[in-house]
Amino acid sequence: MKVEAKPEMVSVTEKMTGADVLMNALVEAGADTIFGYPGGAVLPIYDALYRSQAPFQHVLSRHEQGSIHAAEGYARVTGKPGVVMATSGPGATNLITGITDAMMDSLPLVVFTGQVASGVIGTDAFQESDVLGITTPITKYNYQVKHVSEIPRIVKEAFYIAASGRPGPVVIDIPKDVSAAVTTETFSSEFHLPGYQPTKKPNPLQIVKLADALSRAEKPVILAGAGVQFANASENLKQFAEIHQLPVVTTLLGLGTYPGSEKLSLGMGGMHGTYAANMAIYESDLLINIGARFDDRLTGNLKHFAPNAKVAHIDIDPAEIGKNIKTEIPVVADADEALKMLLEKADSSMHHEPWLEKLQGNKRDYPLWYEQSDKEISPQWLIEQVYKQSSGKAIVTTDVGQHQMWAAQFYTMEKPNRWVTSGGLGTMGFGFPAAIGAQLGAPKDLVVALVGDGGFQMTFQELSVVKERNLPVKVIIVNNEALGMVRQWQESFYEERYSESVFSSNPDFVKLAESYGIRGMKVDKEADVEEVLQEVFSYEGPVVVDCRVVQLSNVYPMIAPGKGIHEMVGVTK
Amino acid sequence: MRRIISATVQNRGGVLNRVTGMMHKRQFNIESISVGASETEGISKMTFVVEVGDHQKLEQLTKQLNKQIDVLKVSDITEKAIVARELALIKVKGSGQLRAEIQGVITPFRASIIDVSRESLTIQVTGKPDKVEALISLLRPYGIKELSKTGVTAFLRGQQPQQVTEINSFPV
Q1: What is the pTM of this model?
Q2: Mutation test of the interface with chain B: which of A115, A141, A144, choosing the one with the most B Cβ atoms within 10 A?
Q3: Considering only alpha carbons, which residue of chain B is nearest residue A132?
Q4: Would B158 be classed as within a structural domain?
Q5: Which residue numbers of A have CB closer than 8 Å to B's CBs?
Q6: pLDDT digits (tens, 9 = 90+) for A223-264
Q7: Structural domains in chain A?
Q8: Total structural domains in chain B?
């Protein structure tokens, strides 16, 4: 009987696999951190990662949702694409919330998903899911790699698409046979995208129109959105506002694009914005939107939004201009390029002193307010204390809901790229993993995750990552033992029928943190807050603080759903 | 209002899904869509007939189409001098005497009978949508057993009465 010789092992160190080609492509793209989770269909990629000398770190989350929110936090503070890696099927579908979140908030991500081998795609194979089909509506672009030769080109193209123009998530689906394919060739990474040429420079004629409108405006106001951050336009925005003495309203995602404590700043506009900001928009005769998308939470009822204003809109995405609000002066451009050109035309003559006086009066007479209880901790006051004890210098991440609005109102942002929140999608469970990504992206900065007790319970498994890497993230749980915003709406609009919004059982968050080997603290008296927070911010490692706050506290002021921007309730006590 | 939108796209995987998915997501009503190769290899031409509420919605549609990375050029050609054609296959009940009658009905439309069976005949008609519609309504009394239309495909005539301005704001 003839004994067959064992096939010789292919030495993968001599030949390259598709996964090795991918590692090189990632190095070339400048990736330094990969947020991921392994699985069957990405085994070749994780093997290449293990063998690789590549100068990037892989951060192992405890759930793919943790990976992608971390990548979002990283992208938000660094401006670079966050890189995510997950396996096929459930690995990929666990990313969906984060991909959608990034799409809504224009965050650059490059997301790699494993896929079953090419030969069995479409046969409902084990852990197969139609990643391209599922992610098409929630990505800026997506790919399935058909051949190893495409990898360098697709990766380079994906990083370019994710970070340029209006940023957004790009998904690359890699079948297992492609990442396992062995090759000795090198492939070109050159790409050509004739259908994708974002307009960066504004049309000078439009800038002239805008400058002209500005010279005649009596009640001008700037609305600054996240587009200002993506374009690194904060400096020029500040100059522009100062030269023309233009009051500035920021959107939720635009917080920090203009220093919140400046005289010209009116704070955040919208559903829970300040009276001064919303009334400025309502009464203005020239509204200059820079990089915001007129989201419904900002505008309220469209009929009553800036009814007397000529609207100018600077946006790199032409499809946002005129989408919700009729726009007289459209400027398709990168915010910084447009501001630079506007500054060339700037003249400091202006005739809107009465307007400025009125707005300053509104600011003075209708400040944000809250009720302070005798013993219990008021959540708004807590945020103010966090601001104070962190000297207002932290990178702040949040989930969605009451604590998010209080953070937006009371943690005044002075600089861009330090406010990490889930705006468009409003994702619970975003804040804590986003803080991990933010800390990895900005290792020297203080990162504070302001989260609700509801949201934290959606993603707290990532405490393992914090422990593993000893990331000094400070988690402040604004714990009202309820889904606060849901409860508030039930109180206001559903006659206090608190349907499923109050938690009758929460974990002991101190023990929970300790079980992960992380310091846990708890505070439930106002008198102890200062001391606890001082301890938190002087401690070098990670801390989880369970802050028990008043359950029935509401976010004010508020524009009720369907109401106009001038119909705020709860403006004063 | 009914508009005819023509889009030139790169023939990359999933482009049709991307475009129709976007239109579905943003609640644009597609009446018909036809897709096929263009004169350039790797480039396809799509023609949509859509029903949109107003000009603002129309502008949104062309902008959202333009935003797609695989879309090279978008034009609303409704009000231009265009050639627009669709093809319909119509299977009508008919035997004996009726056949001659039907033949008489379709002749002015320059339609032709392309299949005959004992109890039915299949008619092929090409033309502008209103012409095709007119023939279909004339044939309806005879009993339409099956109907299939390709949707409109269209482009600009070689010569335009006045200058054509593209909606497209992107350089291509």
Answers
A1: 0.93
A2: A141
A3: B14
A4: no
A5: 132-133, 136-137, 140-142, 144, 161, 193-197, 199, 317-319, 322-323, 326, 332
A6: 999 999 999 999 999 999 999 999 999 999 999 999 999 999
A7: 16-183 (3.40.50.970), 204-365 (3.40.50.1220), 379-555 (3.40.50.970)
A8: 2
Q: In terms of residue numbers, what domain contains B62?
A: 2-76
| Domain match, B62 and B111 both | no
- B121 interfaces chain A, CB cutoff of 8 Å: no
Dihedral sign computed on CA atoms, order A528, A533, A536, A542: positive
Give the whole-angstrom CA distance, residue A233 versus residue A201: 14
What was the ipTM of the complex prediction?
0.91
CATH of the domain at B48: 3.30.70.260
Determine, yes or no, domain membership for B166. no
pLDDT tens figures, A517-546? 999 999 999 999 999 999 999 999 999 999
- What does each C-alpha distance from A132 to A88, A135, A185, B72 come to in angstroms? 11, 5, 28, 21
What's B90's domain CATH number?
3.30.70.1150
Which candidate from B22, B25, B72 shows the least CB-CB separation from A195?
A: B72
> Is pLDDT at A11 greater than 80 in this prediction?
no
| Distance, CA of B130 to CA of B124 (rounded, Å) | 15
Residue A371 DSSP code: P
Instruction: Give the three-state DSSP class for A336.
Output: helix
**Amino acid A417: pLDDT:** 96
Is B67 in the same domain as B95? Answer: no
CA distance A284 to A309: 5
Residues B71 and B10 in one domain: yes
CA–CA distances in Å: residue A135 to residues A97, A151, A425, B53 = 10, 19, 15, 28
Whether residues A319 and B10 touch (CB distance < 8 A) is answered with no
Question: With an 8 Å Cβ cutoff, are B172 and A195 in contact?
Answer: yes
What CA dihedral angle connects A66, A71, A76 and A82, to 10 degrees?
-170
Which pair of tokens denotes residue A163? 């970070």
Catalytic residue numbers of A read: 64, 126-127, 176, 485
